[in-house]
Amino acid sequence: MTATAPDAGLAEQFERTIARDQRVEPRDWMPEKFRATVIRQIAQHAHSEIIGIQPEGNWITRAPSLRRKAILLAKVQDEAGHGLYLYSACETLGADRTDLTERLITGRQKYSSIFNYPALTFADVGVIGWLVDGAAVCNQVPLCRSSYGPYARAMIRICKEESFHQRQGYELLMTMMSGTAGQRAMVQDAVDRWWWPVLMMFGPPDRESANTAQSMAWKIKRHTNDELRQRFVDMTVPQAEALGVTLPDPDLRWNPQRGAHDFGEVDWDEMKQVVAGNGPCNAERIAQRKAAHDGGAWVREAAAAHAAKKAGRERTVHQ
Ligand code: BYC
Question: Most buried pick, 50, 119, 125, 257, via CB within 10 A?
Fold first, then answer.
C-alpha cells in the first residue's frame, strides 16, 4: 500500500494531480485524510444502493403486470450491482468489505436518509424512479469527474443505469396519470410524501455541511449540496407540470432575478432525526439487512472452504 509519512515530493505530486484535474489512482500516495474521506463517501453510497433495494423490492411480487414486474426486477438488480461496484472501489483504498458491512449493520456508518421512508403504494415505485433516481442522477453525474479514479469510473455506468431508472419511473407515472381519477390521486399522494425527503438526499445546507469545503478542495465533490439541490428543483418543476402533478411547496416559484426557482425550507430537524436512526423505517431496514447478511453466512463459509480446498489442490499439483 501507500506510504503514510509523505516526503515532500509525494505530497507535491498529489497536489499537482488535483490541481491539473487528473485522477488519483489506488497506488498513488494520498493524504490519509483524503483516503478516509473517499472511503467514507463511497461506503455510504454503497450502503445506500444496497439498502435502497428494500422499499422497491417489497413491490416485486405485487407489481400489477408481468411487464412491470420484469422492469422492477431489472432495476432492483441494477441497484445491487451498483452496491458491488462501489464496495469494490472502496477495497481499492484498503477498506475491508466485511468491516464495511459490520459498520452498516451496527449503525456506525450512514446510508441515505431517503430509504427510511416506506413505499406505500405502487405509485411510490414510479415516484421513487422519477424523483429519487432523478436526484441520484443530478448528484452523481458530477461525480463522474471525481478526483478518485475508481470512484469516477464506477459512476459512469451507475449514472447511465440511474438515468434509465428515472425514465422508467416517469413512464410509469405518465401511464397512471392517464388512468382513473383514483390512480391520479395515488400519484399525487406519493409525490406529496416523497418531495421533501428527496430534497434531503442532497445533504445538509451548505452552512452546516461539515465535509463540503474539504471535499470540494480535493475535487472529490464538484458542487455543493445547495447547488445540486437547486439544480434538481429547476430540473423537476417542468417535469411535474408535464406530468400534471403539484409539488407540495407553497413557496415554490420562478425567480427571474436569480434565473432559478425559489423554494421553501426543508425540515432539517426531520432530516437529523432520520439520519440519527429515528425515521419511520430505520430499524426495519437494518434488521432486514442484518437478517440477509446472517442468512448468507453459510454461502460465505462454503465459498471460503471451496477456495481453500482449491488452493490446497493447486499446491499439491505444483509440489
Ligand atoms: N442521508 O458534510 P456533509 C441512490 C451525512 S443512492 C444520510 O454535507 P458530504 C439510489 C454525511 O454523510 C443515494 N446521511 O457530507 C439507490 C455526513 O456524515 P459523516 C446515495 C447524510 O459527504 C437505490 C453528514 O451527514 N447517494 O441514489 O460532503 C435506489 C454531513 O453531511 C445525508 C450518494 O451517496 C443523507 N441524505 O455530502 C435508488 C452520493 N446527507 O460521514 C437510488 C454520493 C448527508 O460526516 N455522496 N449525510 O458522519 C454524496 O454526494 C455526499 O456524500 C452527500 C453528503 C451529498 C450525500
Answer: 125
